[in-house]
Amino acid sequence: MAFIDKLLNKFNKVKQAVNSLKGIQSKIQAINYTTAIDALGEEKDAAQDLLEARRNSLKASIGSKKTAETYAKQPPPVKGMEAIYPTFDELANYIVFKSRARRQRGAKTHPVHTNRQVALYVPDALISQSS
Predict the structure, then answer these.
(1) pTM (whole model) above 0.85
(2) Which of 74, 117, 129, 131 has the greatest number of beta carbons closer than 10 A?
(3) Angle, alpha carbons 23-24-28 (nearest 5°)
């Protein structure tokens, strides 16, 4: 009889272990863990497709033919006004600031789409102090 009791105890332990595994599985499914993993997998695939498309478009645009086309499509650079300060006479020492034109995102022309240049006088005392 003792042998049967030991077998029953072991059988009950196995039954409890199986029930606890089923409980854990049901809790995981209740959290929608599997659907979250599936959604992440789909996002990963979409991101990889996007990266591959971007890589292919960059390879196509690097070619010399594409480079020439992009330069040909650009309008020629427009030189804007030059400002010199002080304006009353021409001096020897200037520091020159050049501004690049902003990217033109439409057909409308605007003064910010020009290359500009500003020259400011640098006094002789500042030059001798810097060296």
Answers:
(1) no
(2) 117
(3) 120
Residue 103 has pLDDT above 70, yes or no: yes
Beta-sheet strand order (sheet of 94-99): 79-85, 115-121, 94-99
- Is the bond preceding residue 86 a cis peptide, omega within 30 degrees? yes
Tokens 């196995």, residue? 14
Report which of 123, 99, 95 is spatially closest to residue 111, judged by C-alpha positions.
99
Residue 76 tokens, joined: 């020629």
Does residue 51 register a pLDDT over 90? yes
Conformational region of residue 32, where left means phi above 0, alpha means psi within -120 to 50, and beta covers everything else? left
Q: Quick one: average pLDDT of 12-16?
A: 80
- Provide the β-strand partners of residue 95: 120
